[in-house]
């Protein structure tokens, strides 16, 4: 069975059924030549869980960058496509509570900080806290998932509209909706978890207490990882997917101002949309295992197109050029009939591990060679001429400063490496 | 149009029709929810050509690693799957003859040398030489492609069987087949190209002469690139795909003995199969351009599963362990209740750019932490204990030599970086 070894992109439809809740309508279905109903993968999480089950893997930490498919309306300006990449990181295995969960959040923090996408915030909640909250607010058991989907819309809809959907479309009582409304406006840190553990209503739910105790533990690890500046415990975060069982989180970029201090409901930055999300899914592997053997998992998924679209906008705004090559040096010539010498020098540089490029023309103009370096951000040019060849030197030009210096051929590789290291 | 921006993996069937010759039967067809006939991409070359045409790109050099699909019989032991990765490198643009072609061969040479897969040979031929040869041997024009497909089987079938397929299945005359037989046994280098340019029959074909003149030029560039030790001009190389228009090549691993000297028909190494192939396809982009505007292209495709399967066999044979992580240091502890200290140190190392790992257990056993390092090839362990914390030091252990030394906490990052650089 080929599928045991790698999750095929096309998969039997039933593999995906019942994993995505109300989002299931976006699954991209196909039929193969035999008429079997197939689907394109919707995310990388379900394939990962299936892979663990099929190969009986009980612990692993891995990342995976690949395409996923959603039968949604594309919106290209916002970086939303029907076919797009996800970049997932997951930790699977039976471990002590919240340690891998904290590592996932540390990784999101590190990635978003290093990409310099602007200020961001990571909202954290827990499915058990949500379920406990629904229970103590009087939501009937069979309405938990659908009410959860409605709460998930709070980042796009006002509370009034969310409340109205709960009451009018989903048949929830007004009292229950209003009680939910009080909780989902709460944001904070470890102290909010502590306060809710004392809350008269919330503390009646065992599930909520388990989630809140873990939330406290999570924040203590996040303090050690020095990432609490961006992480907010937010009771309005729901996330639609059915498979989450514990911690859930979502990273959003905020256009202005820092995230509020933990525990304080500050001036909120304007959200420019979610760039990463994830959570704990302890039941998914068991759904694929013939014996129902469970493997607890926690993971995060980053939307790369989204990130790229922001980086490109930033580059455009600053009139900065985005480098599309890693070429370090262009081997050029000012005179005719030096193609062979150019090729020879290029091969010398390649063999020395230098990223070199040469124009595929017999007699390119020096100006067009230099222009190409300017356009594509190549920092150095090694220029050959009859005189240089006689003297055993190469003219090394700095594209930015336009300074040129003769370098002994035997010392060229060293000199280029030095110049690159200096940059 | 979303497809303009990225080649979707699923594509209208007609995009692929007429590009792959007799291999078209392996195209993986699908129907979408609307009933439209789609196919999964067969290779990365056709999608690349379509991308250039749709975006009006007239020159580009790029690599692409991604999955392709063939409705073939899988053979896992030989690294052959229905879904597999290809790693493609292509140069598109109007340039002087054979310069980008030579670069592609240099890249194949470099990759196969650096991977240390064992000895290899790169066979080179030219579609124009093949077509010219077919013409002067008396193959009717409308049989060129199908006879070419049969010649392509020479790496798997004996000449007798190939001859028999030409004559009995494809209706070629015995005389034409025998004349082809004489040519396809020829192997050599630049000198063979020169000899064939003087060949009474071959020199009658303008096409063959154009191909042979370019072959001479190619070899002169390959000499400058210092790769002629592995490249052989081989008239039996055909490659089945319809889209090639000029140079074609294929890299094979040879189990024993070096490739024959150019111009000399030496003792042949046993082929263990093709690991890379490619060629020039100057007409493909024009097939997708509404105005038929052509963009000449040359490229190479490497079969990664094949390469991995060989590397894994090699590793197994030498009982070497293939490292599956890049972790440089494990943060461990010999005593209980030091989880927080371990997490804190791990974050310190992460923040300093060191690849560190920590066990997700409150109180893991020292032995299991060390065993994990042995198993996964992590070279260093930073061990914390009550005494070390008091003294402001960390015990740094070399997993291989088992030597341990106390390192001042403030100097730990420097010391780890030094140790890693030494390895």
From TrEMBL, chains A, B:
Domain of life, per UniProt, equals Eukaryota
GO BP term (any one): histidyl-tRNA aminoacylation
Q: Name one Pfam family in it.
A: tRNA-synt_His
Query: Any idea what this protein is called?
Result: histidine--tRNA ligase
All copies of the Aminoacyl-transfer RNA synthetases class-II family profile domain together span 63-311
Enumerate the residues binding L-histidine. Answer: 43-45, 70, 86, 90, 239, 243-244
Question: Family, per the entry?
Answer: Belongs to the class-II aminoacyl-tRNA synthetase family.
Q: What is its EC number?
A: 6.1.1.21
Catalytic activity line of the entry: tRNA(His) + L-histidine + ATP = L-histidyl-tRNA(His) + AMP + diphosphate + H(+)
Keyword list, A-Z:
Aminoacyl-tRNA synthetase, ATP-binding, Ligase, Nucleotide-binding, Protein biosynthesis
List, alphabetically, the PROSITE patterns matched: AA_TRNA_LIGASE_II
Entry-linked PANTHER family = HISTIDINE--TRNA LIGASE, HISTIDYL-TRNA SYNTHETASE
A single GO molecular-function term is: identical protein binding
């Amino acid at each position: 069975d080929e599928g045991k070894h790698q999750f095929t992109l096309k998969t039997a439809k039933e593999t995906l059924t019942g994993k995505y809740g109300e989002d299931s309508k976006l699954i991209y279905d196909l039929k193969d030549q035999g008429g079997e109903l197939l689907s394109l993968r919707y995310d990388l999480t379900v394939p990962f869980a299936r892979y663990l089950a099929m190969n009986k893997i009980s612990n692993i930490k891995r990342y995976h960058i690949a395409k996923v498919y959603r039968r949604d309306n594309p919106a290209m300006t916002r970086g939303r496509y029907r076919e797009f990449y996800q970049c997932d990181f997951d930790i699977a295995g039976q471990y002590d509570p919240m340690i891998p969960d904290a590592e996932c959040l540390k990784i999101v923090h590190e990635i978003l900080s290093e990409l310099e996408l602007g200020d961001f915030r990571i909202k954290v909640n827990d499915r058990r806290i949500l379920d406990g909250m629904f229970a103590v607010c009087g939501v009937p058991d069979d309405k938990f998932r659908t009410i959860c989907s409605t709460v998930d819309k709070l980042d796009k809809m006002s509370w009034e509209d969310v409340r109205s959907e709960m009451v009018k479309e989903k048949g929830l009582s007004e009292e229950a909706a209003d009680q939910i409304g009080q909780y989902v406006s709460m944001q904070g840190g470890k102290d909010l978890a502590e306060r809710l553990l004392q809350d008269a209503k919330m503390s009646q739910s065992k599930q909520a207490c388990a989630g809140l105790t873990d939330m406290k533990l999570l924040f203590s690890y996040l303090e050690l990882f020095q990432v609490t500046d961006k992480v907010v415990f937010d009771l309005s975060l729901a996330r639609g997917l059915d498979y989450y069982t514990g911690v859930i989180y979502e990273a959003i970029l905020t256009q202005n101002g820092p995230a509020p201090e933990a525990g304080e409901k500050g001036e909120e930055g304007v959200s420019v949309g979610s760039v990463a999300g994830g959570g704990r899914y302890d039941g998914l592997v068991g759904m694929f295992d013939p014996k129902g053997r469970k493997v607890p998992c926690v993971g995060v998924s980053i939307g790369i197109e989204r990130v790229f679209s922001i980086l490109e906008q930033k580059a455009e705004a600053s009139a900065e050029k985005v480098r599309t090559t890693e070429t370090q040096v262009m081997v050029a010539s000012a005179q005719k009939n030096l193609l062979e010498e150019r090729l020879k020098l290029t091969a010398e540089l390649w063999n020395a591990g230098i990223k070199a490029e040469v124009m595929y023309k017999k007699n390119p103009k020096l100006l067009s060679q230099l222009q190409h370096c300017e356009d594509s951000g190549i920092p150095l040019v090694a220029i050959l001429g009859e005189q240089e060849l006689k003297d055993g030197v190469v003219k090394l030009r700095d594209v930015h400063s336009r300074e040129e210096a003769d370098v002994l051929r035997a010392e060229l590789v060293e000199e280029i490496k030095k110049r690159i290291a200096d940059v």
